Amino acid sequence: xxxxxxxxxxxxxxxxxxxxxxxxxxxxxxxxxxxxxxxxxxxxxxxxxxxxxxxxxxxxxxxxxxxxxxxxxxxxxxxxxxxxxxxxxxxxxxxxxxxxx
Amino acid sequence: xxxxxxxxxxxxxxxxxxxxxxxxxxxxxxxxxxxxxxxxxxxxxxxxxxxxxxxxxxxxxxxxxxxxxxxxxxxxxxxxxxxxxxxxxxxxxxxxxxxxxxxxxxxxxxxxxxxxxxxxxxxxxxxxxxxxxxxxxxxxxxxxxxxxxxxxxxxxxxxxxxxxxxxxxxxxxxxxxxxxxxxxxxxxxxxxxxxxxxxxxxxxxxxxxxxxxxxxxxxxxxxxxxxxxxxxxxxxxxxxxxxxxxxxxxxxxxxxxxxxxxxxxxxxxxxxxxxxxxxxxxxxxxxxxxxxxxxxxxxxxxxxxxxxxxxxxxxxxxxxxxxxxxxxxxxxxxxxxxxxxxxxxxxxxxxxxxxxxxxxxxxxxxxxxxxxxxxxxxxxxxxxxxxxxxxxxxxxxxxxxxxxxxxxxxxxxxxxxxxxxxxxxxxxxxxxxxxxxxxxxxxxxxxxxxxxxxxxxxxxxxxxxxxxxxxxxxxxxxxxxxxxxxxxxxxxxxxxxxxxxxxxxxxxxxxxxxxxxxxxxxxxxxxxxxxxxxxxxxxxxxxxxxxxxxxxxxxxxxxxxxxxxxxxxxxxxxxxxxxxxxxxxxxxxxxxxxxxxxxxxxxxxxxxxxxxxxxxxxxxxxxxxxxxxxxxxxxxx
Lengths: 101, 637
Known about the structure:
heterodimer; A: Helix Hairpins; about 75% helix; B: mainly alpha; two-stranded antiparallel sheet; about 5% strand
């Protein structure tokens, strides 16, 4: 039995919304990063579903790119967070407001 | 031959290079040895080249340099009798001056820098003397200018001396620009930069072009040789150490300009206008400098003005079409002027850095060796027969007198008057500065004779120069005095030379008798004017009215004129551009514009809370709006 495309899209939308909510609402930098990851994966899910729907491999190829980007983003992001933690002893996003106008 | 010429040119360069790189880590004696041996080796090579080449002219490529497209510059030399004589003179005088400097700079900590620049200078000067490729020549030409700047301002912590160095650099640069333009023209016209082939093809030039190029070369020479109107740097250049004054500003560099004109003589002689201008510059400058020398007080400034005046005679010689006379005077001048400067350096050190001739005196009893050596130089400079300068100057005067163009008669009168002033200012210096007088011994009687000891080496190096100054006339003794005119015969293969002037022996004899007798009369007159007894009446005897004395002391106020006519307007314009245009206009404009932006962005300021979540919210909101717009088909286009 094929899962209908609309279900896949719905799941992707829910995941994306959850990720976005997490990124916006949480103040812990690690949680924000996780939210971003969830959003990326939601986009990936939509790509895979679309690829299946139209029998086109481009969507799956994109997912590979998204995985690579997400992995490198986490690597850099976590390194930055560790550095910030060491420097200021905090991972609270609201404390980093040097660019406040 | 190639090896010899290569070593001749590049030995001093290697000396400078090794001093610059490792000089500070070597013991002092070794560093000094390197500097002296590099120049001495070069002198030996010059002798070998001189002996083995005979009177042949040859072009030798020493090193490849660079090439762009079909243009290439090589380090090549054109070795002809003129260059041979010049190279011999330069290396000989520099060798002696390097030896002298070893003693002169004995207390200076910065000797490495000093000898490095001195060696570099000799290299650059040899490039000027020998080079065939004009770009290579220009390298040497700028090189001597740079070394002169670096050595005048050698004691750079003294503001006055550093300024004198800059002044020399800027003024010679004004001349160098013309040389650069001339080189570009040569390349445009001949498609080659080889001096020898340019001279060979010179006759194909149009008359106007020949005049223009000649004038450009003259302007270059005027800057380097400190002639009017660019003469003002040389007297100030005396701020440098005395060996530098002797080497650069008397014997070699200032003659580079006139030497350049000699090298280009086939081209320059195409235009009689150029020749007349050269001769006029020479005669006028000779007179100007001789007058200025008459009321200077600083021993080195007197010698500097006399250098300008003597170099002007060489210009006059070239302008009158007599290359040999010019070269003859160049050689004899190099010997006696180096001698005079080095002797002056001994006196200055012995008297504890005293430059004022009115505070010297009584040197015959206190410092007899240098007294007699200086007298030898003064006799040669004052053109007292039968010593060095007499014959060379006389040949130039004769060449000017017999020139067919009547304008040269006026120049001859000017040059002859200058020839009378020469012994006057020379022996004014000698009588005031060196003869016995009561005041000097009284002042200095507290310590034994009032002299600091001067190393023997400094005095020894003067002897060869003194002997050569006295007998320099033998280089080219005229045939009416049963001489064999060696220099004239040796230089005869150089294009454009006139081995013997077309003057009747009777005229030549009369002229020599006349100038000789008059020089001796002027010597007597200067003794009458500046004899030591005068010191009993006034402390600073002057033979001229006060106003005139002032006028001459400041070199006809030429410096002041440039100050008012060039420097001040330039400073005013620069100040205007700086304060009004740059700071007031541009900077202020940017600042004001920048201050506008905060005003514009007051509303936006509220949005930048510095909270990440706000930014994210806004981002998502924006995306939503865009996506909705796209979905609903609200395309802005």
